[in-house]
Each structure stands twice: as C-alpha cells, then as structure tokens.
TrEMBL record:
Keyword Signal among UniProt keywords: yes
Designated name of the protein: Extensin-like C-terminal domain-containing protein
InterPro entries reported for this sequence: Extensin-like_C
Transmembrane portions of the chain: none
Signal peptide range: 1-23
Length: 298
C-alpha cells in the first residue's frame, strides 16, 4: 500500500505540473489536451454529444448560463446520479447553496461510475465545491496554473454516506484504512474517466481532508493531435541535437585540454633535459679546470 501511494504521489505531481499545448501553439498549464477559450468548434461538438449521453442515461440536467472557462456548462437540478436498474446517488453540498455549475463531462464521468459506486454501497457524496475560479496553489502560497475547478471539471468530496447511513470522513477515516474510501479511490483511478484522484495520501499538503476528482477529457481532434505530436517530435529532435552538440563541444574541450597538457608535459620534459645538459656541461668544465690545476701543481 505504501509503494502504491508513493507511486500515486509521483504521478499526481506530474499531472499537476504538466502543461498542454492548445490550438494557438501556446501552452495552457494544467488544461486538458486541445482545450481552448473560447471553446473551439470541436469542443462545442463534444459538449453536445456529452449532453445527449446524459439524457440517454436518464440524468436530469439543464443548460447553465455561459460561465467563464466552462466549455459545456450544465446544472443537475436534483443533484442526483441515476443508477442502472433503479436507485440513485445524491450529491450533497456541505455548505454551499445551489445551483452548482459543472462541465457536462464531469457530470457524465460521475454518472457512468454511479452504478459501480452504488454496488460498493455509496448512497451520498458530500462535496464542498465544484466550479470555482481558482488557481493551483504552489509552495509559498504562490499562484500557479488555473485549476480544474475553474473549468468545471473537478469536485471535492469530503464525506461518503453508505447504504447503512454511516458517514465515512476522508479526513478522519481514509488514512486509517477505511475500506469503502479505499475502494472508491481504486474504482475512480482504474475507471479511466478521471485523472489521478488526489487524496490525503498522495497530496497531504493540499488534500489532507478530502478527495479531489477530476474528469479526464481530451478535446483534441486527430489533426490537432498529429500536429502536437509532430511538434513534440521536432522539439525532442532539437533537444537531442543540443545535447549532441554539447557532448561534442565537451569532447573537443577535453581533447584540447589533453593536447595542452601533453604540450605542457613535453615542454617540461624538454626543459628538464636542457637543464640536465647544462648541468652536465658545467660539471665537465669544473672537472677540466680541476685537472688543469692538478697538472700545473705537478
């Protein structure tokens, strides 16, 4: 379990730090692939299909007024998620008053998991917020990228009520190993409909008391995806070329350094030989003078 949570923490950090390119070629940090504002024609079309799917699943929804950064804004008047075969899961606000604006894709992601959550025993999800125009808080209370709450794709769940009426608190029971909360986390992570669930285990600084669910949406068209992948490949090529040039420059510098060192050693050896030759010549002169003095004395 510890290893799993460590891996989840690493992945969550990666997700939060990642930036995604949009159609204009600029980077919108923490935004879904292909996300633009105002919404592109492709995003609007996906929004229409999402609303159709909500209706097919029996979700009671209404179109919400145009909301800043929310591509397909909807209300759920009853704030319930229908369950296949009968039943529902209630979305209960902990303190805010309705209506609650959300992106259609968040409503759809929750609805498509409702039957599985219901089988686990979930009857109510108590949340503090869905849409709010906020930024991700960085260390030192600095403002980071726009959060997924700002685009209506995230919900913060603090408590879960089961079919026996028992309230499971994320803050009080999750780290103690509450089975239902752990099963919910596993279900959401494995569903593919959500990004990595943020919990007290993998993000204790910002999510020590609640679950943070983010619907995982991909707005990119095939053409946009190919363009992005092509740009990423070109970027990787440029990075490799820079690294190769740097390695080549370092090798050349090392070779030049070795060459200078060899030349320096050669000069030093030549200087030693010359000094030794001068020393031998001086010794030879002294011997000859000594020999001449000895002959004269004889």
């Amino acid at each position: 379990m510890t290893q799993t949570r460590t891996l989840m923490l690493a992945l969550a950090c990666l997700f939060l730090c990642a930036g995604v390119a949009h159609a204009g070629g600029k980077r919108r940090a923490n935004m879904p692939p292909g996300w633009t504002w105002p919404p592109s024609a492709g995003m609007q079309q996906l929004g229409k299909r999402c609303k159709q799917r909500l209706s097919e699943l029996g979700v009671r929804w209404k179109k919400a007024p145009r909301t800043q950064k929310v591509a397909s804004a909807v209300f759920l008047p009853a704030m319930t998620l229908p369950v296949a075969g009968g039943g529902e899961i209630a979305l209960v606000s902990t303190y805010r008053k309705p209506p609650f604006v959300m992106d259609c894709h968040l409503a759809l992601a929750l609805t498509e998991r409702a039957s599985e959550l219901h089988e686990l025993g979930v009857r109510e999800l108590h949340f503090s917020s869905i849409h709010r125009y906020t930024h991700v808080q960085k260390p030192g209370n600095k403002k980071g990228a726009l959060s997924r709450h700002a685009i209506g794709l995230a919900i913060d769940v603090w408590h879960v009520v089961d079919d026996a009426g028992i309230k499971h608190s994320v803050e009080e029971h999750y780290l103690a190993g509450d089975e239902l909360l752990l099963e919910i986390e596993s279900l959401m992570n494995e569903s593919g409909a959500f990004r990595m669930v943020l919990t007290p285990a993998n993000d204790p600084l910002a999510h020590d008391d609640h679950f943070h669910f983010e619907a995982d949406v991909d707005y990119e068209t095939e053409a946009e995806r190919e363009q992005r992948l092509r740009a990423e490949r070109e970027q990787r090529k440029r990075i490799r070329a820079k690294k190769q040039a740097k390695r080549k420059r370092i090798r050349a510098q090392k070779q030049a350094k070795r060459k200078r060192a060899r030349a320096r050693r050669a000069r030093q050896a030549r200087a030693r030989r010359e000094a030794q030759a001068e020393q031998r010549a001086a010794q030879s002169k002294r011997r000859k003078r000594q020999e001449r003095r000895e002959r004269r004395s004889d």
